[in-house]
Amino acid sequence: MNDPQTKEWLATPPRYPQANTVEDFRRNLGVVKTRIADACRRVARDPATVRLLPVSKTVDEARIRLSYAAGCRLLGENKVQEAHRKWSTMADLPDLHWSVIGHLQTNKAKLVARFATEFQALDSLRVAETLDRHLQAEGRSLDVFVQVNTSGEASKYGLPPEDVQAFVHKLPTFSALRVRGLMTLALLAHDTLRVRACFVLLRTLRDRLCQDIPAGIEMNELSMGMSGDFEIAIEEGATVVRVGQAIYGARPLPDSHFWPAASPSTEWKP
Q1: Exposed/middle/buried for residue 67 (C-beta within 10 Å: 0-12, 13-18, 19+)
Q2: For the chain, which domains are there?
Q3: Contact present, 104 and 81 (Cβ < 8 Å)
Q4: What pLDDT, on the 0 to 100 scale, is given for residue 188?
Q5: Chain centroid to CA 257: how far?
Q6: How many CB atoms lie within 10 A of CB 147?
Q7: Cα separation of 218 and 76, whole Å?
Q8: Quick one: which of 59, 119, 120 has its CA closest to 89?
Q9: Please, are residues 185 and 145 in contact by the beta-carbon 8 Å criterion?
Q10: How far apart are CA 152 and CA 237, in angstroms?
Q11: What is the pLDDT of residue 266?
Q12: In contact, 249 and 17? CB cutoff 8 Å
């Protein structure tokens, strides 16, 4: 916690208060849905075209159950083992489903194949092959998003934009993977123009891919935007927004702790 970004964050009152009751969660969900609707209205979109994915990483089981009571049925988790543990301990809620939105190592693919409904961070053929093999063994299939590194930061996972087309054309080999679209993490910055550029890049890339898409692959979904920038993402075409702190409350550490600052960005023009 010695980096300047973390110190500054800890010295600032949290923007998002903790939700500790069902009523708190209902209120926070209502506020987020209103923000989604307002962003859609600004660009003449139907709010029904945007799916809200609440992100419950670092949230304990008791508060997840409160959010479930408030209506949350699909939750996003970054860490596979944490998500699998929560899935196991909340097996009494059979309609509670899990989306893995963080980097996946091949040795954790077996767990994802066992419990996840969705995987939003596919950026490796080795992971695709391993996931597919375990899914086949489980008799399951899985919705997946291809993760793209639109910020050019070395600290972030995801394919370079120029590698995505060749990668996508190899995915029909893996029949248990249902490719739905693309996912990205934007630059963590106060400069909204640079943040917006990440979302524009992903949408532009998706539009290019749709001109030459393999059979069995879908590119309808764009998962982009978090608590601090999802309105910008919606304005640029997001169909899924991953929102944690605006629903559950501020985490003990800032996002910069999970995605540290990287070396200067490389430029990729859409």
Answers
A1: buried
A2: 15-250 (3.20.20.10)
A3: no
A4: 84
A5: 17
A6: 26
A7: 21
A8: 59
A9: no
A10: 20
A11: 34
A12: yes
Amino acid at 56: S
Which residue in the block uniquely carries the two structure tokens 């767990």?
A: 111
Residue with tokens 């003449």, as numbered in its chain: 44
The DSSP element (H or E) to which 197 belongs, if any, is helix 192-209
d(CA 195, CA 99): 24
Q: Which helix (H) or strand (E) holds 74?
A: strand 74-77
Give the number of other Cβ atoms within 10 Å of residue 261's Cβ.
Answer: 13
d(CA 240, CA 238): 6
Report CA Rg, the chain: 18
Reported as a single tens digit per residue, the pLDDT across 48-59 is 999 999 999 999
Vertex 257 angle, CA 17 and 253, to 5°:
25
Phi-psi region of 187 (alpha: psi -120 to 50; beta: other; left: phi over 0): beta
Inform me whether the pLDDT recorded for 237 exceeds 90: yes
Q: Provide the terminal-to-terminal Cα distance of the chain, rounded to the nearest Å.
A: 36
Say what the pLDDT of residue 168 is.
98
Q: Measuring CA to CA, how many Å separate 156 from each of 3, 102, 165, 188, 196?
A: 18, 10, 19, 11, 17
Instruction: State residue 266 phi and psi, 5-degree precision.
Output: -90, 150
Phi, psi of 180 (to 5 degrees): -110, -25
Both tokens assigned to 48: 């029904």
Which H helix or E strand runs over 36?
helix 22-42
